[in-house]
C-alpha cells in the first residue's frame, strides 16, 4: 500500500515562491555561470570520443553504437546528433550540455520537493523550508565549480546526462510512492521505469539506482511491515533487471559468476584491492573539493595505495566513521543521513571495486554531489544555534550559491584558455606526463613552438 500524502496549504508563501519562478531562477543561474563557455575548445577525451570517432561523424545506426559502447548508447547518439546539426563547432555541444545541466538541476529541485513530503521528514519542516530548501539544494548543485568537469568538459555529458535521468527516476518514484490517486501512482511508476532505462544506457554508474530506491525507503519513507513483501519484490526485481540488461548488452552470460567478474572490471593492470585502497584517499579529495573547491584540475596525479598503507587505512577509517555517524543519524536527521549514504552509494561503481584505468576525475562527483547538497541544505536550516540561525539562515542560503557561482564563473574562464588551463594543471600535477603533452600541443597550436617543445620534453 502506498503512503498517502495529504497536501497542506502553504499559506503566506505568495506567488513569488512558487516553482515556476524557482525554475526561472535556476535557468538564470546556469546562464550567468556558464553563458561564457560556448567557445571552450575540445579537451582530452573529446578528441578520441567525438572528433576522431567515426560513429559520431558517420552515423552507422544504434547497432554500431551498442558494439562500441553498450551502456553509453544514448550519450554517443546525442554526440552524433550534435555533429549532424553543427559539425564539430563546439557551440552546439556546449548548448546541449548546458541544457542537460539545467534539466538535471530541475530534477534535483523536484526530487528535493518530493523528499520533503516523505513520512519521516514532512512533519519536521515548515512551509518556508518546504518552499526554499529545494531551491537552495538545486542552486548549490548547479553552481558548484566541481560540476564544471561534467558540464564544460564536453565528453562528460556522459556523467551529467546519466545524472539527469537518474535523479528524474528518483523524483518520479517518490511521486508514485506518495501519491493518493491510482492514476498518479501508475504514471509515476512508468516515468520512473523509463528514466531508469534511459539512465542505464547513458552511463554504467546508473546501475546503483535500485540501491538508491532502497535507501529512500529505509531512511525517508520507512514503509509499514505489511508493505515489505511487495516492495522487496519490486526492488530485487529491479536490481536483477539491471544486471540482466548490463550482462546482455556486453554479450556476457547473466547467470555466470565469471561473466559478472569480467564485467566488473575495466582494467587488468590493477587489482580490485589496490584500486579500492587507492580510492579511499581519492574520495576524501572529492569531499574536500566539495567543501573547499580550490585546486580543481582536469588531469590529476594519483599515487597507488594498498591496504597495508597508513594513508589508505586512515582514509578507510574516516569513511567508515562517517557512514556510521550517518546511519546513527537516520532517525534524528534523515536528510543528512540519506545525503551522506547516497554520496557513497553513487560513488560505489567508479570509486569502488571496479578497476578503471583513470584513478580520479572530478566529473565522477557530479551525481554523488546531490547527496552532499541535500545534507548541507538540511544542516544549514537546523545546525545554526538559535536565535542566530533564524536571523542568518536566509542570508547564508543566498550567499552560498552566490559564492559558488562566482567560483564556477572563474573556473570556466580557465577552461576558455587551453594554455592557462594546462599551465595550471601541470603546476598542480607536475609529474603528469599527459598534462605536459597537452600543454605542449596547445602552445604549438598557439604559434609558440619553442615553448611547446619544452613542455613536450617534460611529457
Task: Describe the protein.
The protein is mainly α. The protein has two domains: 361 residues, no CATH class; 42 residues, no CATH class. The protein has 23 helices and no strands. α10 runs antiparallel to α11, α16 packs antiparallel against α17 and α22 runs antiparallel to α23.
Quick overview of this protein structure:
With 459 residues, the chain is an all-alpha fold. It has helices at 19-34, 45-51, 54-57, 62-68, 73-86, 90-115, 119-122, 127-143, 148-151, 157-178, 182-200, 209-221, 228-249, 257-263, 272-291, 310-328, 334-347, 349-353, 369-382, 388-416, 418-428, 433-445, 449-458. It contains 23 helices and no strands.
Q: How many DSSP H or I helices?
A: 23
DSSP strand content: under 5%
Bin the helical content.
Answer: 55-70%
Q: What is the number of domains?
A: 2
Biggest sheet record: none
- Find the count of extended strands (DSSP E, 2+ residues): 0
Radius of gyration of CA atoms, rounded to a whole number: 22 Å
Shape by Cα distribution = globular
**End-to-end distance:** 61 Å
Low-confidence stretches: 4-16
Quick check: average pLDDT?
89
**Element pattern in H and E:** HHHHHHHHHHHHHHHHHHHHHHH
Helix vs. strand class: mainly alpha
InterPro entries: O-mannosyl-transferase_TMTC (IPR052346)
Protein name: Tetratricopeptide repeat protein
Keywords: Membrane, Repeat, TPR repeat, Transmembrane, Transmembrane helix
Transmembrane segments: 12-34, 91-111, 131-148, 154-174, 228-252, 273-292, 312-330, 335-356, 388-409
List the helices and strands and how they pair.
Blueprint (H helix, E strand, L loop, with lengths): L18 H16 L10 H7 L2 H4 L4 H7 L4 H14 L3 H26 L3 H4 L4 H17 L4 H4 L5 H22 L3 H19 L8 H13 L6 H22 L7 H7 L8 H20 L18 H19 L5 H14 L1 H5 L15 H14 L5 H29 L1 H11 L4 H13 L3 H10 L1
